[in-house]
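As described in the Methods, two query proteins were run sequentially through the folding procedure within a single session, without resetting any intermediate state between them. The first query and its resulting structure tokens are shown here.
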Amino acid sequence: MLDKYGIAKRIAQELEDGFYVNLGIGIPTLVANYIPEGIDVELQSENGLLGMGPFPFEGEEDADLINAGKQTVTTLPGSSVFDSATSFAMIRGQHVHLTVLGAMEVSQNGDIANWKIPGKMVKGMGGAMDLVASAKNIIVAMMHTNKEGESKLLPSCTLPITGVKCVKKVVTNLASLEIKDGAFHLLERAPGVSVEDIINATAGKLIVPDFVPEMKID
């Protein structure tokens, strides 16, 4: 199965030349390190940065350059820094082609829950609500099951909803899946993972084709 870096590498394959892309907190931020050669994309962070580069090497961090998760980042030539009002004008104006988000749960209808666990303190909902309401394409990067081994791909979300019917694809440590027609459609399985493993780890409705190819990560 994949680790978080493998998930990021697989999602990086979804990037297309000319895309404006927002990377959410957690696994999605790692996608910046794996942009394929020959692909020119602009990475946007909702705290007010366009033209974000990969993570800096140790010792080269600039504390004034951070992403929405407060991690230090780099900037590329031509990048710009601006206030959050301008940033959310970009997002709400649907100028972002692709948003990659982490999630605690995703439903077979494409609903996403990624901002709050009842009873636990949260700093705030962040920009996720705006992103899921405005982005043209949303891919979720997540582990297939929680720490108790329970599926996070569900018939319906049990946690507070961030957005409804908005997720197009999910890439997990076990598989890549497309969401359409009220079901998860299995596209690929992670290296070393069987179709049976994925079926057993998926609580939501899962459509499995006759042949499921293995992901090509490298």
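Immediately afterward, the second query was submitted; its sequence and tokens are:
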Amino acid sequence: MIRAKLPPAAVIFDCDGVIVDSEEITFDLLADEFATHGLPLDRAEVARDYIGGTMADVANRARAAGAALPADWVDRFYSRLYARLAQGTPLIAGVLEVLDALDAAGIPYAIGSNGSDQKMQVTLGQHPGLISRFRGHLYSGQTLGAPKPAPDLYLHAARALGVSPASCIVIEDSPTGARAARAAGMACLGYAAHTPAGRLEQEGAMPFTAMADLPALLGLA
């Protein structure tokens, strides 16, 4: 586990499951799609085995597990997912208070997501003023061509924020993202909402279970 420097020079957030509560919607749709194509899994199994990857990676793993997904499945699933997310994607409880604490301390922050730029616009854009709070620092591993667990996304965000990787803290909810943070040389706090705390710890993250605790964990309270 990489030791955190408190307070950090910058904080980099994952998006899905950390800023917006989109994971359960995604898991439900994936479970439905997998069952339709011959791979019956419940939401808990989907969360356990498919959290944190790109949808292309999800498709590859599902096919390897026996799902007969068509060649155009990724594009079709994204269309279905974006339409569902646009109907209403709540924020993670307490995350606005975390951003308020960072703003009060003058600490910059960014999002580094394996989701697409379009997906971030769909989910974050539902909440007035939220996108502008990130001052343009919304980064997609798909757009960069190097999704997590590669460290490139987090290293890119640190450069854009003008801080060293070692002075950043990453907020993640998946083992894949925690692995990327560790590879980038960044301390990671693991929001253990959909992933067992032990799996996040195995990837070098320090787990926590409530966003209300995050300002203190960042040395801001």
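Residues 23-86 form a domain with the DNA polymerase; domain 1 fold (CATH 1.10.150). We note this only descriptively and draw no conclusion about the first query from it.
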